[in-house]
Specification:
The structure holds two protein chains of two kinds. By secondary structure, chain A is of the alpha/beta class. Helices cover about 35% and strands about 20% of the residues of chain A. Chain A has a six-stranded mixed β-sheet, sandwiched between helices. The longest helix of chain A is centred in the middle third of the chain and has 20 residues. Chain B is built from 14 helices and no strands. Chain B has one domain. Classes of the chains: A alpha/beta, B mainly alpha. At the A-B interface, α2, α4, α5 and α6 of A face α7, α8 and α9 of B.
Chain lengths: ~270, ~325
């Protein structure tokens, strides 16, 4: 059979979503969503409440299966795979409503990321073998290093749910990084932060990108953050893409202003 | 050589282990002096078995946050499997030779229980809390009913004449080893994956944990220990029948666990110990016994809803090897 259609092109994109639709029952939440993100880009996803931004994150990370369309990560299809498989492939995320392991310590929260890369088997663990202790020590050092980068080392042995809000947000980002991702999805990282904290978050995001060779896709409501950090922005409204471009272009786009501020703002 | 100085260092670095050896020595000594009779010894053996049962249930319910309420079902599988081997293989239970059959039989009992746990866990652990509870309870009843109607397994009459292979030494070694293994599990990355599932399953999945596999693994492991306990239990009582493993039996272990502190090995041990002894202590109050027992439960739950020990751990139990 002759191959019809697209020949495998040289794929530069780290993440590529093609014509994705998603329905919740009869409700169309996402309509013909497409995006291509190149390595080391920082892309913003904005839109009014209920536009479908978090749904897109849930689709990328495998919590939902797209009704139509495909998601390619590094050229390989990942739609329909289970979330842990997608994480192991190199996508990690944070959550809009923080989802830490509350009863575990800060350090343990990070250590969970090393479960799938563990270098010892069940019997090593059960018998507490030498290999087990050696690996555990490596994991611990690695995690402590990561915690120091986020200024959380002093709190390593506190319970995660006892941290102040800002620290919890940072811990969640640190934890996402511990899985060694290539693509990081941040769902409203600045939510609940004051302008000063948000400002320092901007720096952190840039630093992370450079230090970890990360590609970042982020959802954010605080325009200062979005405009300050993103190189490219995509605007969603009712599941449809209404605009796409650089921060400057987006700020001037009429359709975006209409979606955010209503019809009267244009007139 | 075991010089006094070395002994001292040993005791200091392994306080828990030394304490247990002392406890064992004390109990055997008192037994030889006839201060403790065989009833007391049997009670101590039951405490040991109950501790392992409770800790293994805690692995599933406390540390992984799954709600299994049919733990006695696995015990039944282990008990009947091993009893089948010791009574059928050994027509005339012959002294020390019997242990050659008893030890493998206990292990195989555990493996059978683990296999059952695996088969039940695989389809049901994808479901959340309540469903799992219902399925595990139903499973335990199914096991009991199958035993009840099958003649080769003694049917409703049960099986008697089981050799009394379980003794104090065996229970001590078994309980210490089992708890040690489960404690290692909790301290490892497997334990952390379990606790992650308990605290937030969605986040656990996002951290790359195959949550289904982890839950099935814990469930299977818990069932294994319950199966081994079943074998020891049968060889203490020397007589088993299906009604040893009713829902009430499963409920007992749930009580031990939650009264002690569900996410804590120390809690499970404390709960199982106190509440195995308590009803025996209250025997003199005859019919008021269960009233006092229930009242104690209510009071503990009122004043310490997180359990007697709570979620803390007793240090020597979980302290890690000193850094080199």
């Amino acid at each position: 059979m002759a191959t019809v259609g697209l020949a495998p092109e040289a794929n530069m994109n780290l993440l590529e979503i093609r014509n994705m639709d998603h329905y919740f029952g009869g409700l169309r939440a996402i309509h013909r969503f497409s995006i291509a993100i190149e390595p080391k880009e920082i892309v913003g996803l904005i839109g009014p409440n209920g536009a479908g931004k978090t749904t897109i994150f849930n689709l990328i990370t495998g919590f939902y299966r797209p009704t139509v369309g495909e998601i390619l990560f590094d050229g390989l299809p990942i739609h329909g795979k289970r979330p842990f498989v997608i994480t192991q492939a190199g996508i990690s995320r944070t959550f809009q409503n923080i989802r830490l392991f509350g009863e575990m310590t800060v350090l343990e929260n990070i250590k969970v990321a090393h479960h799938h890369t563990r270098q010892y088997g069940l019997f090593s663990a059960l018998l507490s073998s030498r290999r087990f202790w050696k690996c555990e020590e490596e994991i611990e050092n690695h995690c402590l290093e990561l915690l120091s980068m986020f200024g959380l080392r002093e709190r390593a042995h506190e319970r995660a749910d006892s941290l102040p809000y800002g620290d919890q947000r940072r811990l969640e980002i640190a934890r996402a990084l511990a899985t060694n991702p290539r693509l990081l999805l941040l769902d409203e990282p600045a939510a609940g932060m004051n302008p000063r904290e948000a400002e320092s978050l901007l720096d952190t995001i840039h630093e992370l990108r450079d230090q970890f060779d990360l590609t970042i896709l982020l959802i954010e409501h605080q325009m200062r953050v979005v405009m300050g950090v993103c190189e490219r922005i995509k605007v969603l409204d009712f599941g449809e893409t209404i605009a796409e471009g650089t921060p400057d272009q987006i700020q001037k786009n009429e359709q975006v202003i209409r979606a955010y501020l209503g019809e009267e703002a244009i007139r | 050589m075991l010089t006094p100085k070395r002994t001292q260092t040993f005791i200091r670095s392994y306080p828990l282990f030394s304490g247990l050896v002392l406890l064992y020595a004390l109990i055997s000594f008192l037994y030889h002096l006839d201060w403790l009779n065989s009833y007391h010894i049997q009670l101590v053996m039951l405490v040991g078995i109950n501790i392992v049962m409770t800790v293994s249930l805690g692995l599933i319910n406390g540390f992984t946050g799954q709600f299994s309420i049919g733990h006695a079902g696995f015990m039944a599988v282990g008990a009947y499997t091993s009893v089948g081997m010791t009574t059928l293989l050994l027509q005339s239970p012959g002294g020390h030779l019997g242990y050659l059959v008893f030890f493998p039989a206990t292990l195989i009992g555990g493996i059978f229980a683990a296999a059952t746990g695996f088969l039940i866990g695989l389809p049901t652990l994808r479901l959340g809390g309540d469903y799992l509870a219902i399925v595990t309870m139903a499973f335990a009843e199914v096991i009991r009913t199958i035993i009840r109607v099958s003649e080769p397994m003694g049917g409703p009459r049960g099986i008697g004449g089981i050799p009394d292979y379980t003794n104090l030494t065996i229970v001590f070694i078994f309980a210490i080893t089992s708890v040690w293994l489960m404690r290692n599990f909790i301290l490892s990355t497997y334990g952390r994956a379990s606790k992650a599932i308990r605290d937030n399953e969605i986040a656990a999945e996002i951290m790359g944990v195959n949550t289904t596999r982890q839950k099935v693994l814990v469930f299977t492991l818990g069932a294994f220990f319950a199966g081994c306990c079943g074998s020891l239990y049968a060889h203490v009582l020397q007589y088993i029948h299906p009604d040893n493993f009713t829902f009430m039996k499963s409920l007992e272990y749930l009580i031990y666990l939650y009264i002690g502190g569900s996410s804590s090995i120390s809690g499970a041990i404390v709960g199982a110990t106190i509440f195995t002894f308590l009803p025996e202590l209250f025997r003199r109050f005859s019919s008021w016994r269960m009233v006092i027992y229930s009242l104690t439960l209510i009071l503990v739950m009122l004043f310490r809803p997180e359990g007697i020990v709570g979620n803390r751990e007793w240090r020597p139990l979980v302290s890690r090897r000193r850094r080199t």
